Structures are given as C-alpha cells and as structure tokens.
Known about the structure:
This protein is α/β, with parallel strands linked by helices. The protein has two domains: 4-203, FAD/NAD(P)-binding domain (3-Layer(bba) Sandwich); 210-459, no CATH class. The protein has helices at 4-9, 26-42, 59-70, 86-89, 119-122, 135-150, 155-158, 259-270, 274-282, 303-317, 323-352, 376-393, 397-400, 420-423, and strands at residues 10-12, 15-17, 52-55, 75-79, 94-95, 111-112, 130-131, 133-134, 159-163, 172-174, 182-184, 196-198, 200-203, 209-210, 213-214, 225-226, 250-255, 360-366, 401-403, 405-412, 428-434, 445-450, 452-455, 459-460. The protein has a six-stranded mixed sheet with strand order 1-2-13-3-4-9. It has a four-stranded parallel sheet with strand order 19-18-17-23. Strands 10-11-12 form a three-stranded antiparallel sheet, with no helix packed on it. The two termini are 16 Å apart. The structure holds flavin-adenine dinucleotide.
Amino acid sequence: MADPLIALHKVAPGVFELSGLRTVSIRDQxxxxxxxxxxxxxxxxxxxxxxxxxxxxxxxxxVATMVAATLRIPVVxxxxxxxxxxxxxxxxxxLDPTEYDWPARHWREGKFPWHTSRPSHAGPVMPLPYWTxxxxxxxxxxxxxxxLWEGQSPGNTFATIIxxxxxxxxMLRRSAKQKDWLFLHxxxxxxxxxxxxxxxxxxxxxxxxxxxxxxxxxxxxxKQYAGFEFWGDDPLLLPNCGVPVASSPLRVLISGAGDGAxxxxxxxxxxGNAKALYDALFSKVGLQHFIPYYRPPxxxxxxxxxxxxxxxxxxxxxxxxxxxxxxxxxxAYVTEIxxxxxxxxxxxxxxxxxxxxxxxxxxxxxxxxxxxxCYGLNRVxxxxxxxxxxxxxxxxxxxxxxSGHEVDAVDGANHSCGDPWVCxxxxxxxxxxxxxxxxxxxxSQLLGTxxxxxxxxxxxxxxxxxxxxxxxxxxxxxxxF
Length: 481
Ligand SMILES: Cc1cc2nc3c(=O)[nH]c(=O)nc-3n(C[C@H](O)[C@H](O)[C@H](O)COP(=O)(O)OP(=O)(O)OC[C@H]3O[C@@H](n4cnc5c(N)ncnc54)[C@H](O)[C@@H]3O)c2cc1C
C-alpha cells in the first residue's frame, strides 16, 4: 500500500505541499512536518546522499528541517523574512496546543506532546516544544531554540538555514536526464554554486493573504476598510479595548463566523482566553469536566463529542463546507446550549454575566443561520456568552448575532479608512445585506454606527507548488506508530 502521508501531500514527484490544508493549527503543522520527513526518509526519497529543500520558516518548516538534520540528512531551509516564526512574533494572541481539542479528554493538557509520563505513548519528542503562552512569547522562544540548535552538532552539520531569501517556483527545476532529482537554480552565498541537487522539496509557506478588507461606501475619495490582522497586534484586550471610556458603551462589530471571528467575539466581550472563560462559566457548578461527557436521558452518545465527530467526518469528505452539514452541526449545539441555559436558571445566569466586560457591546454579522467550520470550544462559548450578553444589555440575541447577513460596506464617518490603528475608536457606519449559503441580496441596509470593526473572513490559501491531494485532513492527536 502506498504511504498515505506521502500520497496526501505529494504534488509532483519529490515535491510536497504542507500549505493550504485544513485542519491547520500550529500543532497539526508540527505533526504533519515531522511525520512527512520521517516517511520521505523511510521511502528513500531523502537520505544522507539525497538532501531536502524546505521552503518557509514557520513552525512546519522549522520542524521539518530539525527532524531531517537529526536523521543526518543535509537540509536547506529558505525563509523570506529576516528570521523564523514571524507570524507568531508580532502577535499577542494566546496560544494553547490542546484547548481547541475540546471536548476530547486531553483538551486541558496545554502542552505538546503531552503524554510525556508514558513514553510508550509519546514517541519521539518534537524538536520544538509547544506550551500554552502568548504567540509572541512562543515566537521568541522558538527563535532562540533554533539559534542554539544551529550552533550545536549535529544541527549545524546537516542544516543550512538561510534567512531573507524569497523562493519562487521557477528556481526549482527537474532535469530531463535525472528525473528523480530536483535542482535549485539560484545563487545563494551559503550554498555551493548552483544548481544544487535535492532528493525532495517541502513547501511550508503558510497562508499569505488574510481577508480583512471590505469596500467603503461608494463615495468618491473613500478608501476600502481594513481591520486588524489576526496575527498582528491589536488593542482589543486593553481596558475598554483601548478606547477612552465614554458614557455610552463601546460598540464593536465583528464580521465572520469562523474561528478568527468567534475568538475575537470572546476576546472583546470577556477580555480573556477560551479556557479561562470556560472555567469561569462552569467551575462553580463543577461542570467543567462534566458537560462534554454528560449524556442526557434518552441520548445514546455524548452530545458534543458525537456532534463534532459527525461533522468532521462529513466535512473531510465533502467537496466544500455544505449548508446542511454546517446547519446540523450548529443546531445540535443550540439544543445543548438550551439545556445548559435552563440548567443554570435565572440566578446563576445573572451571576455568570459578571464574566462580561462592562461598557462594551458586540454584534457578530455572519451569513446564513449557522457558523462556519470552527472549533467546538469557540462555538459553545460564543453561543453561551451571547445569551449572557443579551440578558445583561437588554438586547435580543437576534440583534447580537446578525445571522443571515454579510457586511456590504464600512464607512469612516469623519475620516478616511485604511489603517486599523487610525480607525479604531472612531465612528464607522456599517451597511449589511442579507446572505445565506446560496445567495446574497443586492440591497443594502444601514446597521448602525460602530467604533471598532473587525473583519475575519478567513485567509486565502496559496500553496506554492499546487494543492495537496487531500486538502481536508483530520490530523491525529497522538504520534503514529
Ligand atoms: C486567520 C488565522 C487564524 C489562525 N489561528 C490559529 C490559532 O489560533 N491557533 C493555531 O494553532 N493556529 C492558528 N492558525 C493557523 C496557524 O497560523 C498555522 O497553523 C501556522 O502558522 C502554520 O504554520 P506554517 O509553518 O505552516 O506557516 P506559517 O507560520 O505561515 O509560516 C510560513 C513561513 O513561510 C515563509 N514564506 C512564505 N512564502 C515564502 C517564500 N516564497 N519563500 C520563502 N519563505 C516564504 C513566511 O515568511 C513564513 O515565515 C490560524 C491561521 C489563520 C490564517
């Protein structure tokens, strides 16, 4: 049987793509990178006499490089930026390698790999450790660890990490005579004169373009609106989201229904991270361990785990995220949220509303009646917190979750948009139009004025060499043996 990992990521003989895939958490990428290098080695595609070329110095590229060097395979890593891990370096986001595995049992582990006390379950340790911390903290730590490793043997013997080198596809060619070799045609001071021969190449270039723009209202001279980058700095966790406190609440609009939008919805409304919020909501009644594993009377399976399993199976086989799968996924959660809400009762609901920040009002605009493909933890928390927010602010749930709509235009009332730091805190008029999975309306309506507008419409995958054979892959949690 062909090796499934090789078959899934191969885009041409000896050429592999680790970009443009889903699921694509940092941990998924680490595991994919390590396993792919080990399988290429096992298949003889790379060897001490057949070097490896890695393009892109994020977590995937760094892990691939370190694993190859440990196997004594000469490896060259090309990174376009001045250093590795720049995606994490500029961001204050909270990262946790396991929290989004909720409701799987290990979701509280907070480190990867986690079964270190049971070596038989851990397999070889990852060359870079991953623990719960801010993205910036991890980026700095990983940079230091790689620099230290570069200075040591065997890392420095087998790996050449070249920073500040932008790779383009045309630099890599196959010769008509030696078809199982790839040749790098580019003069790089640290490498022998070109062409340099490689047994295989792995692209780890990540997601280059995030969709965080919407048109301005069609008024001459207005620029399109740009929101904060997901992997950039933003003031949303500062008191009152970094806006001087006024007598009326700060109004924030978030557009999107994937993990980026839902994560920011929780950050803005509660000022914290998902695990801490989950504990705050469930600790008093001791439900933090109970909820995911609770089987209500009449149910055959555990509801959240069952729903996640069904949805992931369906989505990994579908050509695109189908309406009925997403809808069923979402409505199963809504049913469970109803149950939790009733279980809490009015007194507990009022007490729990204290998790919300004062003086902030959030509206989430998203097409259709369901959220998109997103983590269960984000979905369950957003649905619960929306109810608490509705109760506290006196706004109906339907006004907070503007389901069935998409943002049509954003217009800075007294300034020109374009830089999110300039826009943040200033009034913006937001127009929306009705939209579902099948169509959107052509007529626009004014939703209101918001001081902060966050656009989380995902990222455009741009794999370097081509799309992997199966771009939707459910990645294992554990090592494979
Ligand atoms: C909006 C959004 C939100 C996300 N949220 C989370 C989250 O909360 N938690 C989580 O675990 N994951 C999250 N992810 C996924 C996470 O960003 C990726 O899993 C992870 O960064 C991928 O690592 P990587 O090494 O594959 O790519 P990246 O980290 O993107 O690294 C790619 C590297 O390749 C370099 N590069 C690109 N093109 C070239 C070229 N032509 N030549 C040389 N170098 C090049 C880049 O400079 C970069 O350093 C999110 C992703 C997006 C887009």
